[in-house]
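Marked as duplicate of an earlier ticket. Keeping the data here for the record.
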Amino acid sequence: MRILHIVTGLASGGAERQLQLLLRHLPAHQHCEVLALTNPGAVAAGLRAEGVTVHHLGMRGNRDVAALPRLARRVRAGRYDLVHTHLYRAGLYGRTAARLAGVRAVVATEHSLHPGVIEGRPVTRGVKGLYLAAERLGTTTVAVSRQVARTLHAWGVPPARVELIPNGIDAARYRRPPAERAATRARVRAGLGLPPGSRVVGGIGRLVPGKRFHVLLEALAGLDASARLVLVGEGPERSALERLAAGLGVRDRLVLTGERDDVPDLLTALDVLAAPSTEETFGLGVLEGLAAGLPVRHSSCPALDELPPGAAPRARRIPSEAAAYTAALRELLDPRDLDDPTTDPLPRPAAVGHYDIVRVAADLGALYDRLARA
């Protein structure tokens, strides 16, 4: 089976990383290629290094309608059995191009949808209208959480056209023997310039307003001077966060790693993961923290909301406010002997197994087979 994944761009965001992870675990008989409408960034390089064919359409913007015929020709030339789109712009152009090219099975994954917000932007009447028009050109829309599925249903997408397949994490990448973990922790901490004995809070995600990383900076200012904040990701809010840190007097306690593809290693350097975003449609970073054996404090994680409370006992929801995070982090960090680099990770909770990428990819592969036979 030949499958083309069409994605808006391939910078190192959550949806893009999720696509890369899925392609490593789909059934062997499903041969996948990827096409980026624009911005073939770090994930494109990673995919090519793994042997995946990556095309770049060179689209100039959302209204570059001249790109549609080029995209349709590319789809037709590839003789694909199925097209799978990711993110809003790719969903509009990709589903249309797939139909023009005669592809019968067209899937779209909705990675980031709230009732009034899509991918961090307000939903206008025009945006919603275009979305629903394109959705009707597809076969199935995959929702990554029940919250996303509920929003799609509220918008008028028939339940029969929605398939719930969550995001996944590569649980095996976070599991390592104690000696290896201790060595990695020491190496990564040294590489990040973290002083011995530092108490390290981490956050994962693009540096955008919706992640609310300013809350963690304000909380950091209320913690002991040995506390450090490590933010893993890149984005347009970087300069604003640096200015805020300077204004709060904690710039020397903030580490911005930029885009990284070694997140499992970076997590060994942390003592707690914090996620103050209130706009998550899944909460991938929270699951990654749990897979790494960290206690987690978060303000939104639909992935955990859909499981029994005992599935992640060391993850706790708190308000997305500096005072709440200051109190929670002080409680977590103060009692622990963090001078010892061999600090053991917490036991892996059931939630990690539930969202293992091996299981998720098998479900998606089964959907592909079913649609191809229809």
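See parent ticket for discussion. The chain has a mean pLDDT of 93.
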